[in-house]
Amino acid sequence: MAIGGLISSRNFGSFIGSGKACQKEKAISHIRKERSGIAVVRNVQGNMFTQKLSAYIYGPMFHVTSNSNEKVSKFIVNSHLRKRSSGRCECLLSSEHSLVSCFQPRAENYTIGTYNWKIQQSEHVRANRIRAHYKSEDFDLTEANVGALQSSEGTSEAALVEANVEGTYPWWEQFPKRWVIVLLCFSAFLLCNMDRVNMSIAILPMSKEFNWNSATVGLIQSSFFWGYLLTQIVGGIWADKIGGKRVLGFGVVWWSIATVLTPIAAKIGLPFLLITRAFMGIGEGVAMPAMNNILSKWIPVSERSRSLALVYSGMYLGSVTGLAFSPFLIHKFGWPSVFYSFGSLGSIWFAIWLSKAYSSPKEDPDLREEEERLILGGSVSKEPVTEIPWKLILSKAPVWALIISHFCHNWGTFILLTWMPTYYNQVLKFNLTESGLLCVLPWLTMAVFANIGGWIADTLVSKGLSITTVRKIMQSIGFLGPAFFLTQLSHVRTPAMAVLCMACSQGSDAFSQSGLYSNHQDIGPRYSGVLLGLSNTAGVLAGVFGTAATGYILQKGSWDDVFKVAVVLYIIGTLVWNLFSTGEKIID
Q1: CA-CA distance, 48 to 91, in Å (whole number)?
Q2: E-only strand ranges, 254-335
């Protein structure tokens, strides 16, 4: 990275010690980033001194001059500056206007680390001046004596004639920062569902060890949602006001600690286990509102569906990972090992999150200018939220369509999430290991089809189809697909067909990520955290009542009755969604 620095002083010996150079006239372009490097200044007699400096570069066009009290020579430096880096540049010094002719065309190549520099003469002339701030630090140069340069005419200045920088960077530094944020949210949701579904596998040996019946198992499964319910709206308000980075980081640390404490609480007694599971729900409850807040600031509208689909597919792959590894860990090390191993992963994620994530693009000092223009040009307003317009939000029919549809959707989803291993074990007669491994297939199907649905939705929007139409199409698939395949479960006769129906049900359900789960940012982007908190509160209530009700239904009835209730709610959700939802912004 070439650093064009403007160095000004009456005496260059005092310059090396002062650490301050300043032009009085202001720059014409905006400040961007701090750059650092080694400026090597040489006068026409060949004397040389060096200075390590850290300069604030003004925009992609860096204007510098060579100046004296009587005469001015003017040059322009065109520098493509993309990242913080260090390097060395060479400048020619002159206080005489006549010496401008000494700048003959030449090309010099420098290789510093992985950066290739090419310095050439500029033919452009500008009379603009800048202010350069730098840190003064001596630098040893073995090939020349470092000394002070005197100017009889007063102020002497050094100018880098031109620097066209085409650096070669590692691929991970060229990767778009907004997708780094998406991948970090994806990994957080991966851990979220790993820590959540491990109980659905561990509950089988735990219920045998502690002599729990179906009603007690249902109570334990639903206790997670007690805490999960409490922090949905609070998490949304918190994220919209102070930023999603802090809120999501808090959530991951909180639920990871609760996961590690679960085996200890279970051995102490049932009440302690219920409280620990509720505490775990508190941490996971803030995750979705915080994530929605972050992505509403980082992701342009044209990439909204696919980014959300990728993040939510982290939940599905978390279920895949948890259901696949839990039986193995239980078999080898006992059921407590699942909670200890999964919970400890949160600390690794948190360390990366602190160093890489920012709540908005404006807070990221390393964000490239072209990506910032893309984000801010294609996404929503970024003004901070100071007050939540509750009356306005709750007066809108599309908001209530979101709330009701989310309830109907989550009833069926949470039943499958928490009770599927038990269904495989009791109805299909699979053992513990088979139950865990076969549960992977439906969630893997969801991960794949969520991303397919996201790309389809963004493509339809880019082709000119209205956002409202796209959201209705995708959510109708997310409702009617699971309803159809759940009705087929009562007619299948083989375990393989039952697993296939489950997989198809979950795969079509994943299209909801491009339907109702993307709609919060459509109708109220500034309040997307609060809107998701509201609708997901209804979804959590469906999880609490649905999970507990399933245990009660199984004591009095059958699995067919469980699936019939879910199908009815899917149909109700389809009607409400298509009648009242919209993809237009209704809350600003």
Answers
A1: 10
A2: none
Cβ atoms within 10 Å of 61's Cβ, excluding its own: 15
SS3 332: helix
Q: How far is CA 237 from the centre of its chain?
A: 19
The secondary element (H helix, E strand) that includes residue 371 is helix 369-378
Distance between CA atoms of residues 412 and 506, nearest Å: 10
Contact 57, 83 (CB under 8 A): no
Its sign, for the CA torsion 458, 464, 467, 471, is negative
Contact 507, 416 (CB under 8 A): no
Asked whether the beta carbons of 53 and 136 are under 8 A apart, the reply is: yes
Whole-number pLDDT of residue 434: 65
**Strand pairing partners for 491?**
none
Alpha carbons 357 and 341: distance in angstroms, whole number = 25
| Alpha carbon distance 455, 451 (integer Å) | 6
Scanning the structure block, which residue is given the tokens 């059958």? 558
pTM attached to this predicted model = 0.64
Backbone angles phi, psi at 146, to 5 degrees: -95, 125
Taking 60 as the threshold, does the pLDDT of residue 361 lie above it?
Answer: yes
CA separation for the pair 326, 323 (Å, rounded): 6
Cα distances (angstroms) measured from residue 275 to each of 102, 255, 268, 270, 415: 80, 13, 12, 9, 21
Task: Tell me the two tokens of residue 208.
Answer: 């045998």
- Give the contacts of 226 (CB within 8 A, at least 6 positions apart): 274, 277, 278, 281, 544
Contacts of 136 (CB under 8 A, 6+ apart): 16, 17, 18, 19, 20, 51, 52, 53
Q: Indicate the SS3 state at residue 424.
A: helix
The pLDDT of residue 437 is: 66
pLDDT of residue 101: 40
**227 close to 279: Cβ distance less than 8 angstroms:** yes
Report d(CA 75, CA 62) in Å as an integer: 10
**Within 10 A of 424 (CB to CB), how many other CB atoms are there?**
23
Tens of pLDDT, residue by residue over 226-268, are 888 889 899 999 998 888 999 999 999 999 999 999 999 999 9
Two structure tokens written together for 72: 């001015």
pLDDT at 435: 63
* CA separation, residue 88 to residues 36, 119, 177, 572 (Å): 9, 11, 28, 68
Least confident of 132-141, 233-242, 573-582: 132-141
Return the number of other C-beta atoms located less than 10 Å from residue 579's C-beta.
10
DSSP lists the bridge partners of residue 65 as: 74
- Could you report the per-residue pLDDT of 109-120, keeping only the tens digit for each? 443 333 344 434
CA-to-CA dists, residue 353 to 188, 260, 460, angstroms: 9, 20, 33
pLDDT in tens, 157-205: 444 444 444 445 666 667 888 999 999 999 999 999 999 888 988 998 9
Report the C-alpha gap between 52 and 137 in whole angstroms.
5
pLDDT band of residue 377 (cuts 50, 70, 90) is: confident
